[in-house]
Amino acid sequence: MCGILMAMTIRVGVAGCTGYAGGEALRLLLGHPEVEIGTLSAGASAGSTLGTQQPHLRPLADRRIAETSAAELATNDVVIMALPHATSGPIAAELPDDVAVIDCGADFRLADAEDWEKFYRTPHAGTWPYGLPELPGQREKLTGTRRVAVPGCYPTSVTLALLPGLVHGVIDGSDVVVVAASGPSGAGKAAKPHLLGAELMGSASAYGVGGVHRHVPEILQNFRTLGAVDPSVSFTPVLVPMPRGILATCTAPLAAEVDAAEVQRIWTETYADEPFITVLPPDQWPQTQYVTGANAAHIQVTVDTAAHRVVAVAAIDNLTKGTAGAAVQCLNLAMGLPETTGLPVVGVAP
Ligand SMILES: NC(=O)C1=CN([C@@H]2O[C@H](COP(=O)(O)OP(=O)(O)OC[C@H]3O[C@@H](n4cnc5c(N)ncnc54)[C@H](OP(=O)(O)O)[C@@H]3O)[C@@H](O)[C@H]2O)C=CC1
Ligand SMILES: CC(=O)N[C@@H](CCC(=O)OP(=O)(O)O)C(=O)O
Asked: 171 with 310, same domain?
């Protein structure tokens, strides 16, 4: 080897390449210096070229889309799965152990099989290391792993908003209230009547109301990881007319006598070394436009003294830090690369 370190290109396949999450993964991977794009696979659109499905991904326009099968995907070093729920499990089971599988879907996120079956109504496929490196101790678990369960977009925003307060015992995790607005790309590309332009434009609507949204158990699992003993969350998602982005407004009772300046200090110090998390200067509140296309979370926090609650707001791009960016962040850790490789932190605004 003449003493020269040979750079190895990592071959990354994307299953679900025609969807929103798969498309965003490919956009990021095209700018990743250590990656070559491997297999592109999908469902009904197999056989067509990517240019007909994802016109913005010009460098891959002529690539033919394969059927999604373990045989097609096994030729890659890494496979990013961006498939509907309960689709990735059977395929992942057939992939060799040395192929790193990074699943953007929910199949392997929950540790509790009962929770899974209650909210997803399919058999539980298993549990993989959870792809939120910002959780204490999680970065180490993701380094070198060959299986990653990328979090849901709402759980990412809510967990990052409240993490410092739970870790430092400043908030009471047993009475958390979250209202989170999301753009419709969170629901995937397949047309749904309530997501058609005429229904969506100029209107905002709550859905999954009353503790029934499938992200509730995932949020609670994260709160327990952060030390909450008997957590509870009242979670209300709201669909709003912007293509992408989540703004999560999270409140929780104070568990310590701290003021706004003190919670600002705690949040800022907790995230001081996190490359993708910014606690904004006081009085500047997160906006989705400033994280569009960035693997970034913008966070602000204060105390509502009259209500005796902390209020924390997080903005992420559901397709970037909320899924595909997190997938690439985890790919970097899994493959021993610097965690920030190929990931933009600057958003597209306005
Ligand atoms: N959108 C988001 O903000 C987020 C998404 N996720 C998760 O990422 C995954 C993908 O979501 P998203 O991109 O939004 O969904 P889309 O509906 O936009 O894309 C789904 C993709 O899966 C393919 N597909 C559908 N059915 C099958 C099948 N039976 N076998 C093989 N491929 C199939 C589709 O191919 P074809 O075009 O050929 O039908 C398409 O490429 C989901 O698990 C979702 O929950 C996670 C966090 C956030
Ligand atoms: C606006 C919208 O519909 N959003 C999706 C959440 C998307 C997400 O995070 O995906 P997972 O399905 O992978 O958990 C929803 O509420 O179902």
From this structure: yes
CB atoms within 10 A of CB 43: 15
Residue 144 belongs to domain with CATH number: 3.40.50.720
The number of residues in the chain equals 350
Q: Is the pLDDT of residue 53 over 80?
A: yes
39 & 27 share domain: yes
Asked whether residue 159 is domain-assigned, the answer is yes
Same-domain pairing of 60 and 159: no
Cα of 281 from ligand 2 centre, angstroms: 30
Query: Ligand 1: which of 24, 60, 83, 218 to mutate, judged by most atoms within 8 Å of the beta carbon?
Result: 83
Number of independent structural domains in the chain:
2
Could you list the residue range(s) of the whole structural domain that residue 199 is in? 154-318
Q: Whose CA is nearest to atom 17 of ligand 2?
A: 187
Catalytic residues: 153
260's tokens? 């706004």
pLDDT in tens, 227-257: 999 999 999 999 999 999 999 999 999 999 9
Ligand 2 neighbour 246 (Cβ under 6 A): no
CA 182 / ligand 2 centre spacing (Å): 9
Residues 16 and 158 in one domain: no
C-alpha of residue 323 to centroid of ligand 1, in Å: 11
Ligand 1 contact, 323 CB (< 6 A): yes
Same domain, 86 and 102: yes
* Shortest-distance Cα residue to atom 10 of ligand 1: 82
pLDDT at position 6 is 53
Pocket lining: 19 vs ligand 1, CB cutoff 6 Å? yes
Is residue 168 domain-shared with residue 101, that is, in the same domain? no
Is the predicted pLDDT of residue 2 greater than 70, yes or no?
no
Residue 26 neighbours by CB distance under 10 Å: 25
Q: What global pTM score does this model have?
A: 0.97
Rounded to whole angstroms, the Cα distance separating 10 from 335 reads: 8
331 vs 110, 269, 339, CA distance in Å?
20, 26, 8
Cα distances from 81 to residues 93, 192, 239, 299, in angstroms, run: 13, 22, 25, 28
- Do 165 and 62 share a structural domain? no
Cα 17 to ligand 2 centroid, rounded to whole Å: 18
Regarding the beta carbon of 20 and ligand 1, being less than 6 Å apart is answered yes
